[in-house]
Design goal:
This protein is 33% helix and 23% strand. With 492 residues, it is of the alpha/beta class. The protein has two domains: 10-92 and 275-485, Aminopeptidase, CATH 3.40.630.10; 95-271, Glucose Oxidase, domain 1. The structure holds zinc ion.
Length: 492
């Protein structure tokens, strides 16, 4: 061992010595009680058909939330709400997709008719209106009218009664103050509203993922298509879809035109505008009379994208994170060494619909913000060989317990980074807390070993690597316990 590593080594020894030997033994015993077998069983439970893909607002999600609340109760984790309940409600409209519907190319160069296939070619729109629309296809780039930015995808094209072929996202891709000006145009809801108000009959959205973070509009039928379908619709124009899209992003100049094709989209849905959903909130009260006034929040979204056409189990996204939080909750509740600070567990609803649950959490906090040490979010932590715990370079005092626990007991790759300002719209529950002024860390897995089926019917338990889920839960247990007992850190 060379001299320059001595400070690090002595820091490790300090931590090992932080607990007397009998306490360390008790911690290790709890550590070993976390098993991949149990985690996989729990992930299979949440991914099962009885919860219907856990679409926030739906009865399936509600049943999954109740299952989590029951597990917390059984583990001795108390209700996290002031009124003594586990479920924190908020409004959450949603739509049921009753069958895959259809997307059909009606006429092309050779007057062909082609039925596209679900789920290979297209996914139905999670918030599509019910019905059938057909019309000529017009490519409208990003579907944005931003006069103050000198950009309008709808200039010079007639879209009345037409089917739009549209991109998600923005033509502008920098992360700087200019992005702030573009932010409002990045929302699917804005794009749908704009298309409808200009009289479009329907929409083919080039992003083949199921996505409930869209907008239900009376009579507006849409579906998600993959790039190969978009390329096929470009046939005969002399242009490639991918090159056209890239050129718009490079120049930030719109390039919209009719594709001389006719398409029909059918959808069968039922909209529930007045539904509600909930976060599941549990709490382990701190054991120290003074430090228990401070809390650490662990969060993961419990909801998924539902069953648009078939079951989308949401195993990696995000049964994995929810189950890891649950495992850490069980371990911390039964740990021989009790956390001195209070630990709060939040299983968010409405993440996929638009971060509703985390927004509710920061708007109606269950704990005073100035007494929260940090929020740690888990999203997609079940496929890989290593970990990334974000923002550790900005908050080294929060990162240290995890780095040391990993080094001593888990030996996984563990990377981190500096926190950075996000000029665009928040995309995760952690970003919502971040924006509200909380210190946040986000844990996810790295070194992917299996294909990732994001918002896809194949995101089932076969897509998980249970051993990394076990280590994630162990890392959380050790790191959070150490954080909860560290006298040197202060809530800000
Ligand atoms: Zn997710």
């Amino acid at each position: 061992m060379v001299i320059k590593y001595l400070p690090l080594l002595s820091l490790c020894l300090f931590v090992l010595n932080a607990y007397p030997q009998d306490q360390e033994k008790a911690i290790i015993k709890t550590f070993h009680s976390i098993s991949s077998h149990d985690l996989l069983n729990d992930a299979a439970e949440l991914s099962s058909a009885k919860y219907g893909g856990r679409l926030s607002g739906s009865p399936g999600y509600q049943a999954a939330a109740q299952w989590i609340a029951d597990q917390l109760k059984e583990a001795g984790v108390k209700p996290g709400l002031n009124d003594g309940t586990y479920l924190q409600y908020f409004p959450n409209a949603y739509s049921d997709v009753l069958n895959p519907g259809s997307v059909t190319l009606m006429s092309g160069l050779s007057n062909q008719r082609k039925e596209y296939k679900f789920p290979d070619d297209y996914f139905p729109g999670s918030n599509s209106a019910s019905g059938t629309v057909s019309g000529e296809v017009v490519y409208v780039g990003f579907g944005i009218s931003a006069p103050e930015l000198g950009y309008d995808d709808y200039k010079n094209v007639d879209i009345k009664g037409k089917i739009l072929l549209m991109e998600t996202g923005l033509p502008y891709n920098g992360n700087d103050s200019t992005l702030k000006k573009w932010e409002k145009y990045s929302y699917h809801r804005y794009k749908f509203q704009r298309a409808k108000e200009l009289g479009a009959a329907g929409l083919l959205y080039v992003s083949k993922i199921a996505n409930p973070n869209t907008l239900y509009l009376e009579g507006f039928v849409y579906a998600h298509i993959g790039e190969p379908v978009a390329e096929e619709l470009f046939d005969g124009t002399g242009l490639k879809y991918s090159e056209t899209s890239t050129a718009i992003k490079k120049s930030i100049q719109p390039n919209s035109f009719a594709l001389n094709k006719k398409v029909q989209i059918s959808a069968s849905t039922k909209h529930f505008p007045d539904s509600r959903s909930c976060n599941v909130v549990g709490m382990i009260e701190g054991s120290d009379p003074k430090l228990k006034a401070e809390a650490i929040i662990l969060g993961a979204h419990l909801d998924g994208v539902g069953s648009p056409g078939c079951l989308f189990p949401g195993a990696l996204d995000n049964a994995s994170g929810s189950i890891d939080i649950l495992a850490a909750a069980r371990a911390l509740a039964t740990s021989g060494v009790k956390p001195a600070r209070t630990i709060i567990f939040i299983f968010f609803g409405g993440e996929e619909c638009g971060l509703y649950g985390s927004t509710k959490s920061v708007e109606s906090p269950v704990w005073p913000k100035e007494k929260v040490l940090c929020m740690i979010n888990l999203d997609m932590v079940g496929n890989g060989t290593g970990f990334h715990l974000s923002n550790g370079k900005t908050y080294p005092e929060l990162f240290r317990p995890f780095a040391e626990s990993n080094e001593k007991y888990l030996h996984r790759d563990l990377s981190s980074n500096e926190a950075r300002i996000n000029y665009g719209r928040p995309r995760t529950d952690a970003a919502v807390f971040d924006k509200a002024g909380y210190r946040t860390l986000s844990l996810w897995t790295t070194g992917t070993v299996k294909p990732v089926y994001y918002h896809h019917p194949l995101d089932n338990t076969d897509a998980l690597t249970p051993e990394i889920m076990e280590d994630a839960a162990k890392l959380l247990y050790l790191g959070v316990l150490e954080l909860a007992n560290d006298q040197t850190i202060e809530a800000k």
